[in-house]
Amino acid sequence: MYYSNREKVYMEIHSDIQIIKDNLKNMKIQSFLESSKTYKLIAEIEKEINTISKSIIELKEPFLLFVMGPGKYGKSTLINSLIKDNKLKTKDIPNTWRLDILTSSNYKKMDIVSGYETKSYDYNEGLSILEAEEEKVKNSKKVIKDKFEKIKKHNDLSIYDLKECKKSLEEKYLYKYDIVEVKHYINKSGVLNDFIIVDTPGLNQNLLKNTKERMVDYYKRADGIIWVLDAKNIVSKSSNDMIVELNENYILSDGYNNIICAVNKVDEIRNKDNDLSKVKEEVKNLYKNYFVDIVFVSSKEAIDGYISNDKKLINLSNIEELRNSIDSNFKINSEKMQIKSKHMHLKISGEYLKKLINIYKRDLYEDLYKFDEVKRSINYEIEKLKSYFEKKINICTNIENLKTNGVYTQLKDLENLLEIELNNMYLSLNKKILCCDETDELNHINVNISKLKEILNIEYLIKEENNQYKEIAFLSKLKKTKNYETNVYLIIDERNKLRSNLLNYLDNQLNSIEKDIINKSTKAFRRKYTDYMIIKEHLRQVNDIDNILKKWGDYVG
């Protein structure tokens, strides 16, 4: 299958865009907030990619080929010869201002634009509407002519007064329809495969105002322009002035000429002695600096040749030379310029998005380091506090200390110290959380270890031991030793249980703090980016997009 350069470029860019869109789609499945940097990045990439997607559709669309020139020079007939059919009706009304647009379509229809409203019709129905409107114009002109002749016949008026009279009659009686554009959708290939053809109204200065502005507007919109001249009227001052002014102001200054001159109706001068040769020489002398090419054709002979399948007549019309000129001067050049324009657009968009992604990745990597730093701090602080309180617990639960200072007093002091240190650590770790939300409540950690049942047991056993010690004088040595040793073992056993419970309590508190800080850090990370648990996959998707953008950045335009 053959693909033009435009089609190849379109498919390549479309494939890149699809990769980007797939990655964006997968990224959007992930968890993030609208206020996050991730959401803002995705939204900006989507916005730019959607603009590019719309822009590259032009690579699949035909170019715009405008047919311009004064009225009654055979523009419509020339268009018919280019599409090899007599589809476009010749406009007999020179002062109608309407665009006829021809585009290839599998479905034959007509769109008629009146003011700001567009209506679609069956093609033949549309033709009937146009013919009816133009008939109204003709009838109104007949009325004007009759009234003018009566006034002229019965009044002795100067030339100036006659002109003013005619002008007044036209303003009052001339029918003005509001159709500004007609789109013809026809099932024809050839030139319409590559171009949408636009038949412009006749640019006669005595009929239209602001002709220069209209011409410039067409020129700016067109990928190519065919300027039609009449072989019998080469030196028309109006057409010559329009050509010179357009070129001087808008073509030569831009350094790009996209106008072909088609000298039409050569069949009407071909048989006269040397007329065709003289016209060719005169045209080249007058306009050689204004057009990229000058082609002499007979659109009438071309149409007649296509209808009768007369190849000799088609060759004589020279219409194929005009087609070749359109291909070489418009199609190829326009394709190059369009591809260059799209590549430049991609380069600019790619560099813009790469800059956003680079900033995003830089911030993300910095915050990933901070997130990991919080986890390292948690481990360090917990281990440090755990080691400190393990020693404190061992000292506090030393039996001699318990006996000397009292069990409850020792545990209450430990409780107060542990509560202070746990809250200090909790506060310190909260300050290190990435983008900590000030609305997050910092709950005070309450420590309650002075009511453990082992405390009461130990107190009771120590009291029992003291009582036994006081009764030594009344007990036998054997009995005293046996009861005393049993009591000591019981105290040691309860002390060990207390120590174990205190260590478990410490572990639970530290684990709770660790879990809380990790949860807050994860929530904070999600608020700023996305779910920390899938960050590797997220970065892979961002890098996939970045790689496409880097390729776009290599385009030289």
UniProtKB/TrEMBL annotation:
Pfam families: Dynamin_N (PF00350). Gene3D superfamilies: P-loop containing nucleotide triphosphate hydrolases. InterPro entries: Dynamin_N, P-loop_NTPase, TRAFAC_Dynamin-like_GTPase. Transmembrane segments: none annotated. Residues 66-245 form the Dynamin N-terminal domain. This is Dynamin N-terminal domain-containing protein. It comes from Paraclostridium bifermentans (Clostridium bifermentans).
